[in-house]
Structures are given as C-alpha cells and as structure tokens.
C-alpha cells in the first residue's frame, strides 16, 4: 500500500495510477469493516512514512506509507502500540509494529 497524502507534484503518471489503485483497495478494506491500526493511534499521518525512494534523503520528509495493519475494529481496544520503526538514516524501508495485549478484567 501507498498512502496518498504524499506531495503529488513530484509523482509521475505511474505513481499516480498506483496511488489511485491503493485508494480503492484501502476503501475496500474499510468497507468490509477493517480499520488501519496505525491511523487509529496517530491523528497526524502526514509524516508517518515507511518507504523512501533511494535517491531522496529521509530528512526531506518525502516518502510513502507502504505498510499497514488492517484489523477488526473489535481488536482496537487491545492495541497497546502501533508505530513505524526507525531504521536509521539510510534505509529505504521501515517496518511497522503492532502490539496487542489481552486486557481481561480479573
């Protein structure tokens, strides 16, 4: 997946088509009742990237979000952490972490 909030002025036609397809797939997941766990934990997604082009430094804050955890909304209450793991100054990809905890009352 690629999140589509990226600044579109630097995208080529192929990237724009891919983003359109990704929007449709993202909507399909939402329509079947799944939620983006990272988006639920972070209100501002504009700087949460998990992929950067090799020729663009991460410090420019221009990347894409290509990784997601779609979960049932019923599981949201068990999410204790959802974040993108910083991989250092020059890696093109960063994994995301989703931590769930069984919060049973006892």
Account of the protein in words:
- This protein has 106 residues and is an alpha+beta fold.
- The chain contains two helices and four strands, in the order H-E-H-E-E-E.
- The strands form two sheets. The protein has a two-stranded antiparallel sheet with strand order 1-2.
- It is flat and about 50 Å long.
- Mean pLDDT is 80; it is low at 1-6.
Q: How many separate helices?
A: 2
Give the integer mean of the pLDDT values.
Answer: 80
The ordered string of helix (H) and strand (E) elements is HEHEEE
Overall, the morphology is flat
Strand content: 15-25%
Q: Which bin fits the share of residues in helices?
A: 10-25%
Radius of gyration: 15 Å
Strand line-up of the largest beta sheet: 1-2
Low-confidence stretches: 1-6
How far apart the termini lie comes to 39 Å
Give the biggest beta sheet. Answer: 2 strands, antiparallel
- The chain-level structural class is alpha+beta
Number of strands: 4
Keywords:
106 residues; alpha+beta; two-stranded antiparallel ribbon; disordered N terminus
SSE layout and pairing:
Blueprint: H1 13-31, E1 34-36, H2 37-41, E2 70-72, E3 79-84, E4 96-100
Antiparallel strand pairs: 1-2, 3-4
